[in-house]
């Protein structure tokens, strides 16, 4: 009788240790995937900039500038012009002359 009580106690204690170990492991896994440390999924800048620059009078220049902005901001506003509120980083980038960099 004493052996079976000890065996049951040992099994319960082992189960508790396993549950705690799994909880610690799960907690460590989620702490490494915080939004601030998770790399942003790369955007298809080529396709987004092709659409953005489709009506430009200088499409190669537009695509080059758009590609630079997209690579840094990971967003391109929708449409062929305007809509800068959709991507604040894209809207605030400027050249050395304080002109808007992104088309």
From TrEMBL:
PANTHER family: EXTENSIN, PROLINE-RICH PROTEIN (PTHR23201), SNAKIN-2-LIKE (PTHR23201:SF45). Residues 1-21 form the signal peptide. It comes from the Eukaryota. The lineage of its organism: Eukaryota, Viridiplantae, Streptophyta, Embryophyta, Tracheophyta. Belongs to the GASA family. Pfam families: GASA. This is Gibberellin-regulated family protein. Keywords: Signal.
